[in-house]
Design goal:
This protein is 0% helix and 51% strand. By secondary structure, the chain is mostly beta strands.
């Protein structure tokens, strides 16, 4: 496995770029790269040459997260202005505006079937689920408070939810918190299942393996990447190599590699079997907030990897 740098765009936005994801191809459009920035805009890019397809406006504060529906027809952006904007990818028309109180949105992700949008609920210590048929809030998955604590305890703030990920089946959902814990829920029963421990600092990113629904990968401010058996509650491996916070992780479509972005300004490619980094990319000159593999057929090697940074740039790599 390896990645090869393809191209970069140095000034993709006017401010730091904190989020990126891939919009799947449709019968009318190829796959597009979606980015969100502190400049309050969301942009769609053609990955062939990183030309701008269109710019989304509407937020009045920085964009912290973007998500694409599996159909490739709609997408969502979340901002520090306390709103989630759901829009039609082709027309850019707003489909729905979801209101979330301050600090109630950090990351979000559509489930594999596209019926639900999960939103990491920040200081509410919960994940909120919105259905995509009517854009109504249908469930709130709350992290249980530690035994003996009271609702007024300030310690509850440590459960500030930063990250969220769906299992490939859509049956389970994991969220990472400020205190380093990861909570796993049964979505259908809206039930908390268990907690995964091991990190000592905030868990900023989570990603399930597309090949093994039990395997969950996490990235944390403790500079480590963990692999868990999310059902068996077992820490499978702990990998280190970054010299600062791990801000983002993703698993390749073939399940054979993990990509990570860090505040040490690097992107690393990891071999989970070797439990080590096999490549380090140094294209960026500032913190790398997001890394994302383009979705391909599960189990197939060969896809694009994107990374975005505080340096306002986008980099694309070929994974093979």
């Amino acid at each position: 496995m390896k990645v090869a740098w393809l191209r970069s765009l140095e000034t993709s936005h006017e401010d730091c770029v904190w989020a990126c994801t891939w919009v799947p191809a449709t019968d009318r459009s190829p796959a597009l790269l979606l980015t969100g920035s502190l400049d309050e805009t969301v942009k769609l890019w053609n990955p062939e040459d990183l030309t701008l397809v269109r710019t989304n406006t509407g937020h009045c504060l920085g964009v912290v997260s973007v998500a694409a529906h599996p159909s490739g027809k709609i997408a969502a952006s979340a901002s520090m202005d306390s709103f989630i904007r759901v829009f039609d990818v082709e027309s850019n028309n707003t489909i729905a505006t979801l209101e979330a109180p301050p600090s109630e949105v950090w990351q979000m992700q559509f489930d594999p079937r596209g019926t639900t949008l999960a939103v990491a609920g920040g200081s509410s210590a919960s994940v909120k689920l919105w259905n995509t048929a009517e854009w109504k809030l249908v469930a709130t998955l709350s992290i249980p408070r530690p035994e003996g604590s009271k609702p007024s305890d300030k310690g509850g703030n440590k459960k500030f939810v930063l990250s969220v990920a769906w299992s490939p089946s859509g049956r389970q959902l994991a969220c990472g918190s400020m205190d380093g814990s990861i909570s796993v829920f049964d979505v259908q029963r809206a039930k908390f299942l268990h907690q995964l421990d091991g990190h000592t600092m905030p868990v900023r990113s989570l990603a399930y393996s597309p090949l093994d629904p039990r395997v969950l990968v996490s990235g944390s401010d403790d500079e480590r990447i963990h692999m868990y058996d999310a059902e068996g509650k077992t820490l499978l491996s702990s990998m280190s190599g970054h010299s600062s916070w791990v801000l983002s992780v993703d698993v390749s479509p073939d399940g054979a590699a993990i990509a990570s972005g860090s505040s040490d300004r690097t992107v690393k490619l990891w071999d989970p079997k070797m439990r080590a980094a096999v490549q380090t990319m140094t294209n960026h000159t500032d913190q790398v907030w997001a890394v994302k593999f383009e979705a391909a057929s599960v189990g197939v090697r060969g896809s694009l990897l994107a990374s975005v940074s505080d340096d306002k740039s986008i980099s694309l790599y070929n994974y093979s």
